[in-house]
Batch of 2 targets.
Target 1
Amino acid sequence: MTNRLLSTTTRLLSRRLLPHGRHHRTNHFSTTTTATTNDASSSKNENIFSKITFIGTGKMSQAMLSPLISQNLQTPSSITAYDVSDAALSKVETLYPGVQTATSIPEAIHNSNLIVYGVKPQNVEMVHSEIRRAKLESQGNNNEDDENEGGCVVRDDAILLSVVAGIPISNYLLGTSLTRIARSMPNTPAQIGAGITVWSCTPTTIDAHDRKRINTVLNSFGKTVFVEDENFIDMSTSISGSGPAYVFLLMEAMVDAGVHMGFSRETATTLVHHTLLGSTKFAMETGEHPAVLRNSVTSPAGTTASAIYELENGKFRTVIKDAIWACYRRSLEMGGQCSQVGPNRQTTPTMTTSSAVPGGMSGIDNGGGSGSGSGSHHPVEPPMGEMGVQSSFGNKVL
């Protein structure tokens, strides 16, 4: 029921807010929605790409794979999946009949013109090495005019689409020797078709036609924002990428407070869910500044004013801002970039070479190593006495 409600809300807001969005469009950003993509796809049986390969079959890969099939954007037989886990591949075969599975990365990317990186950041270099090996094999087959018997063919026009957090486009260019790279940052609500994805690509090797095809893939599970400057992707990681976790933490705190006051957990959860959903929908449809909306709820010397006083006194908005800056810095660190950005940060980081930087590239000593003056992001103390919570997604393959 909740999924259907969220999907309906997303479609409604997409239609109502589209004229609003045109007024805010700049040279650096462009936004599109699922509705516009589906309208543009008049031929339902024509694949977007001749073959799409998913390396890694975790939640985000499945969030992409499922709508591609359900919306008739890609036939199952034109999709290949690879995962190090045999159980994960078996689950893909069960959930998506007709989708091909492969036992190795070279086999999976054979003749594919869209390769989706859906792995953890720490596994990126391993995938790079496999793609380099496959490309060398492919070149050898071409030299011997024996590509049909020799195995893997890595297409020259293959596009690499990454959904991995923190890893910059330059890392994929150097690590794989492929020249057509798109980097994206989706978020968790993509799993129900209500995601928001910020993405960018190599400007000289991916033309407008291919950008449209990539956008169609990303639009299948929500809304997209294209940015010409890749730096905005790391910034978006701290707002939209990790943002759902902030909302879930607020949600958890509000539900727990309701239970403490005497509501059943079920009732408290319903109240909080619909308060957050309705407030978000109201803010989007009215287009008002959040401060205006907050003031409209806050009567002088009233109940809301008392609550806002405690939030402000506890530096609620400062903590939120600090959390977003900390997330942004960590995203930069994961890509081997300088994380000395934001309030109270050094402006002259020192260069160093570190094996921790993906792809063996030169990194920056951002103050996070041993012997440095200040940490690269806010230290986080472990929660005390926090109860473990079993997720409903606990049995899903990551």
Target 2
Amino acid sequence: MAGGKERRPKPSAARQFHGGIQFVKAKGQHVLKNPLLAQTIVQKAGIKSTDVVLEIGPGTGNLTVKLLAVAKKVIAVEVDPRMVLELQRRMQGAAYASHLQVVQGDVLKTQLPYFDVCVANIPYQISSPLTFKLLSHRPIFRCAVIMFQREFALRLIAKPGDPLYCRLSVNTQLLARVDHLLKVSRNNFRPPPKVDSSVVRIEPRNPLPPISFKEWDGLVRLCFSRKNKTLGAIFRQKNVLSLIESNYKMFLALEEVGDRANKVGEMEFELLGDITNDSSMDIDISEDQEMDVDTVETQWPSQIKDKALGVLRKGGFEDKRSSKLTQDDFLNLLSLFNKAGIHFA
């Protein structure tokens, strides 16, 4: 318009540009722009000069350059080919360029190499599967320092009785020690996400308890299906008793042929990280407000029901709630059930 200011279209809220690269929020592309925060994350990782560092989601390399300054080698896994080209362009002629190996691909589908430390600013939608993929990696790494959506991070570190304590908390803390390092405002990213973040340090446990992780998850998933109900109420439900009966018959059949080889030591980590339709991730509600659906005591073969309730009574668990149980409580409960011939896988 003559004599007026030219109106330029604003970048889409879902797509923003930086250095000629278009970031897509839907893909979780939020680049860390605060150099002081990037330096703090590197320091918290405790990287040694002899360490191989796995960086997941390097983006344009703001964190990568600081990792290269302290590590022996950095292996950066990036799914977006545009980011890979930008990272390679940025590293041309850099002092530590020869210490960088860039792998283009989906980290969840990539066979990870050996590494000592993992540092990652990841798309939040892959938080759970990535966490358990890392924890299943062998040989065991020293630690991982990862940026998560704040609520997810708080669930990882939640303790019994915390409103955010859930199946994710129990499964993660079975496999690792998890510590909250720092809260990160959304304004430290470009483009800014809708929520704040937190940096968490994860140290794999070694050795792990000698249990079947498939069975462990079967028990924990069942207990957290109604985490504010007593275990006595949960183990009176028809669907729970049906599951126990089916597994009990399978156990007896395998006992006859002497095949329980897969009972202990299976690394079913993918199951532990599956939070699809996980009701324990819902916001906690009080015990009085929770509706009593499917918890009516049902008529069921007394052998199965009596056996299950007998285990709960013997261990003093009948009146306890999953939301208040510790790791040791769940391990003890699984052991008691298994000794009674009750299995969850």
